[in-house]
Design a protein that fits this description.
The chain contains 16 helices and 48 strands. The protein has about 850 residues and is α+β, with helices and mostly antiparallel strands. β43 and β44 form a beta hairpin. The longest helix has 20 residues.
């Protein structure tokens, strides 16, 4: 027996020695001296692809072209790869890469990367000597990411390895992750052990686990597996107490390269088996688009009805749990303009999504992004907004769980928004499919477009710090949303009113309506949410821009809050004292413009008093709207000359509200300290958060400099629940939260009950005024309301392109977000007056 053991040990030792000292074999080499590369697959878009460089043959690529070749290192170990790469003329974000894939092209590892500062024509060598052994589907590629006539040159590939002698090779498939299991319950995962080698695999006794983990149905311990044979073993997790548990399953064998295979196992015992917002289906979904085979395989994505991105009626509760980072490794997709005056060329890299690598937490059937609100990033055209989505299971997804969540692209430095959905499959162990996305609606007057694509994705499971707090905050956010009913329910809730619900929202061309709705008696009646590809699946978190409604919310509510906190600010504080850049005579000569004058856009400083003449001027566009620094914006805002005394002439200037935001911020810092921020500390902490607005409202457009000044005249992002809460805060709650007066009561009264206040919205206007950041329309002019000869001024917020939020005197809120430059709302409010009169 001792002799036999000695002979076995000697055999394995001799084999290891021989393998370690074997001379490398050249598995593949290529220097392109034959003058071409017929074995390579060429793809992508470039201007030309001659293969000559500096007197020697090389693979030459320009544009967005790549060359790929399929190889194999099966049966070889100690594999080493060397590749060379050079570049000429690269600029900015362009690059050349030599890459290798060990999984048939699903994921790639960079061997050589050449950036613009290295684009000097010199060959650079990269090597890789790990992770390449025994790979049946190895791929190499040279890739250019550059404009035409900027070149990448690939050359001198050498792939070597030493043969693997006949030996067993253990492979283990199956997951050791159990996720959440209720105390007193149990879960079982099946593992498959297989011999992928060409000699018998001798397994030892499997072990190493302790309670609450256990081996059951073990058909593998002390077994011998012939080449290609397999066996199974079940691991059971049965927690008896709450908490996280971890263990290691030891699998000994005679595999010379991995004799002590160790599989990590983990699970969490939970108090109950309840699922947050559970689904009632059995997973039997008849799916015709975005199926498992498509998302995990090849195929080109097309635009489709959004129902394929929605939670289906038969969806079952998810069996996998996502917590960690989702990364998109290639963000180029498709874009097609469908309307508007602007062209795709006006937006740099329009078809590329912003860089995407973000953490998400699954809570029951909900999928929560850790980062909420505006994400600026480095994309030249688009900012990104992520909103919560859903997770579910379908029987046809082969054990994967399915995710769909809404996202929004927002124009950098502006308010245009394009709303879409992303969807993918995943497993607990980090397995993930490709990600499909599409956008087929927007709130943008000047550029309407569809976006779609199928992108490579990766999932890195990880514990997210503060996950419990994020989940609790999300539950609170959802619980505080106003109860929702469809707009058609107005007819059934108020059957004797005679209201025609089809007329509500009809002031706007349907194809250009994003959302509209009514809030009345504590119920939010919702409509819209249509796209060019059917109903958007996530209407409750569909993002809409504020545009100039921000003047009412940030400017109006901001100054009302400042007046409540520091009495006397609205009329006494002069602009010149708090905005140092406004130091010329139009700001320093008496009478001097005050904070209130800025809110009313009545500083007396302007170029033309014509309706929107200053606002629509080339000077305003070039010197204010297209500028991204505080210095540039404030220079234009302070630069208008004095025409009349402050408080006597309304002239629409977004730049006035910007100055108001700057003035309030500087005054607030004088009271609260230099590190204070009026938007974060006052608007968010004292108004938005207590009102229960979504976290999306907690970010805003700011200047791209150290000042980071909020724009105030634009830049907020809402979901529909935010819109009605902000309007009801003034119209119903009279500026109170929880019984506490948050906004100055005098300013609230002057805003809701205009009387003889306000200034005409244009020369000769008799039915339209502006005051305290709000527009006003005198509904007395329409006899249908029955107001008689007495003026009835209705305040409303208004935004560029077709946005209105109307504060009706019967306590109702009506809102519409559209983008066809249609602003009328009287047809809708006439119907609402049938439910509760506006002029009782």
């Amino acid at each position: 027996m001792k002799r036999l053991l000695s002979m076995m040990l000697c055999a394995w030792a001799c084999l290891a020695f021989a393998q370690a000292n074997a001379q490398p074999t050249t598995l593949f080499s290529e220097n392109f001296q034959s003058g071409g590369y017929p074995a390579w697959t060429m793809s992508g878009d470039g201007h030309d692809s001659p293969n000559y460089y500096a007197g020697n043959w090389s693979m030459r690529l320009d544009g967005l072209r790549q060359g790929t070749i399929a190889l194999s290192t099966q049966g070889y170990q100690n594999v080493s790869l060397s590749m060379q790469l050079a570049a000429l003329y690269l600029v900015t974000v362009e690059y050349c890469r030599a890459e290798v894939s060990t999984d048939g092209g699903s994921t790639w590892t960079t061997v050589v990367n050449v950036i613009p500062s290295q684009a000097d024509g010199a060959m650079r060598t990269g090597t890789l000597s790990t992770g390449l052994d025994d790979k049946p589907d190895l791929r190499l590629r040279f890739r250019a990411y550059a404009l035409y006539y900027r070149y990448c040159y690939g050359d001198n590939i050498v792939l070597t390895g030493t043969p693997i002698a006949s030996a067993p090779q253990i492979e283990v498939s199956g997951s050791g992750s159990f996720g959440n299991v209720a105390v007193g319950d149990d879960a079982t995962n099946t593992l498959t052990l297989a011999n992928a080698g060409d000699a018998n695999l001798v397994l030892g006794a499997l072990g190493g686990l302790s309670a609450p983990f256990a081996l059951v149905n073990d058909t593998c311990s002390a077994q011998t597996l012939a080449p290609s044979a397999s066996c199974t073993v079940d691991v059971r997790f049965a927690p008896t107490a709450t908490g996280s548990y971890n263990g290691t399953l030891a699998i000994p064998s005679n595999d010379p390269l991995d004799p002590n295979f160790a599989l990590a196992v983990s699970g969490t015992g939970t108090a109950t088996a309840t699922v947050y917002d559970p689904l009632s289906g059995n997973g039997s979904v008849a799916r015709t688009q975005l199926g498992h085979a498509f998302l995990t395989g090849s195929g080109t994505l097309s635009l489709m009805n959004f129902s394929h991105y929605a939670v289906p009626a038969a969806a079952a509760n998810p069996v996998n749990v996502f917590q960690g980072r989702l990364t998109l490794t290639a963000a180029n997709g498709n874009i097609a303009k469908v309307g508007g005056s602007a062209n795709v060329s006006a937006f740099a890299q329009a078809n590329r999504l912003p860089d995407f690598s973000f953490d998400f937490i699954q809570h029951g059937t909900h999928f929560i992004p850790v980062t909420r609100g505006k994400i600026d990033g480095t994309h030249p055209s688009w900012s990104l907004v992520l909103e919560p989505g859903r997770v579910w299971n379908e029987n046809g997804d082969n054990g994967y769980s399915r995710v769909a969540f809404p996202f929004t692209l927002q124009e950098q430095g502006a308010d245009c928004m394009w709303n879409g959905v992303m969807s993918f499959l995943f497993k607990d162990d980090g397995s993930v499919s490709s990600l499909a996305y599409q956008i087929a609606s927007e709130t943008c007057l000047y550029f309407k477009a569809n976006f779609w694509g199928k992108l490579a994705a990766s999932y890195t499971p990880a514990a997210i710090p503060g996950a419990a707090a994020i989940v609790a905050a999300y539950e609170d956010e959802v619980a505080r949303r106003m109860p929702v009913k469809p707009i058609a329910a107005l007819a059934t809730d108020y059957p004797g009113s005679g209201v025609n619900v089809a007329s509500i929202g009809s002031d706007i061309t349907a194809a250009h309506m994003t959302i509209y709705g009514v809030a009345h008696n504590g119920v939010h009646y919702v409509g819209g949410c249509q796209t060019r590809q059917g109903t958007h699946p996530f209407c409750e978190t569909l993002n809409v821009p504020s545009y100039s409604t921000a003047k009412s919310v940030m400017g109006g509510y901001g100054l009302m809050r400042l007046e409540q906190k520091y009495a006397g600010t609205q009329g006494a504080l002069e602009v010149r004292s708090w905005v140092g850049e406004c130091s010329a005579s139009q700001w320093t000569n008496t009478p001097r413009p005050t904070f209130e004058h800025l809110l009313d856009m009545a500083t007396g400083n302007y170029t033309s008093a014509g309706y929107h003449v200053d606002e629509g001027s080339t000077a305003m566009t070039n010197n204010y709207f297209l500028q991204t620094t505080h210095a540039a914006k404030v220079a234009h805002a302070c630069g208008y000359t004095r025409k009349v005394n402050p408080g006597t002439q309304f002239v629409y200037h977004t730049s006035d509200t910007y100055l108001l935001g700057r003035a309030m911020n500087q005054y607030y810092k004088s009271q609260a300290g230099s590190g204070a921020d009026f938007f974060d500390d006052v608007l968010v902490d004292e108004i938005f958060a207590p009102l229960g607005l979504s976290p999306t409202t907690h970010t805003t457009l700011r200047t791209k400099d150290a000042t980071a000044q909020p724009y105030f005249g634009q830049g907020l992002i809402y979901v529909r629940d935010d819109v009605v809460k902000l309007a009801r805060f003034l119209n119903t709650a009279q500026g109170t939260i929880g019984g506490n007066q948050v906004l100055d009561a005098g300013m609230v009264s002057a805003t809701l009950n205009l009387g003889t206040g306000g200034l005409p919205a244009w020369s000769g206007a008799t039915t339209d005024k502006y005051n305290n950041g709000f527009w006003y329309y005198d509904i007395k002019a329409e006899s249908v309301y029955g107001c008689g000869s007495t003026s009835k001024w209705v305040p409303y917020m208004s935004g560029f392109g077709g946005i209105s939020v109307v504060l009706l005197p019967n306590g109702m809120i009506y809102y519409q977000f559209s983008d066809n430059d249609e602003h009328a709302w009287s047809t809708s409010t006439r119907e609402l007056a049938k439910i509760a009169p506006l002029c009782p």
